[in-house]
Amino acid sequence: MAGTTLLDIRGVQTYYGNIRALNGVDVTVKQGEIVALIGANGAGKSTLMMTIFGAPRARAGTITFAGTDITQLPTHEIARMRIAQSPEGRRIFPRMTVMENLQMGASLDNLEHYDEDVEKVFTLFPRLKERIAQRGGTLSGGEQQMLSIGRALMARPKLLLLDEPSLGLAPLIVKQIFDAIRELNRTQGLTVFLVEQNAFGALKLATRGYVMVNGNVTMSGTGKELLANPEVRAAYLEGGHH
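Structure tokens predicted for High-affinity branched-chain amino acid ABC transporter (ATP-binding protein):
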């Protein structure tokens, strides 16, 4: 099945009120890929992530997932199609324990795999197992990010959307998070669409990448091509982001 287009975004325009945030964006994510979307703060990366989930809605263009047009579907129906999101700012439930947060992520029609799925999350992030009874709000930033990804994985997604998973985290933790994403992709064939300001880490991880500037996709290529591209290097990789 590798190579089948899983997510196809065509000509998408998104507005906040009268302000156009996305100017006709085209992005394709194929099954089994890790695709990175990089760009400066305010380029529209998170807006694209949220538009996939229908909040805000695309005013023009189409978003197709696994052959189904999801552009106008309500958010809960999109989630039911096994697209899971680890949103920017993590948004875990601070008063719930690690275990309760994971339970919130499990999809109700997949409960026969529940124990196995919890075990997979703990294998991926052993730190969460050590913190199983701790409240989400008392975890470190890195642990909260692990929990956010773990919670998304409990839904057994076909597509995992990650919005700024490395934001505000120490380099060692960022490496652990990126290693875990690579591992999920390699061992489970999980398809990942990743929005990142950490261009270097994201492009090293990604099969392919897109560069977004002011609501437009300005460049695309393999992760290696973009890492080697002088314009990308000058804009996103100089200045010690390694």
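Residues 148 and 222 are 27 Å apart (CA to CA).
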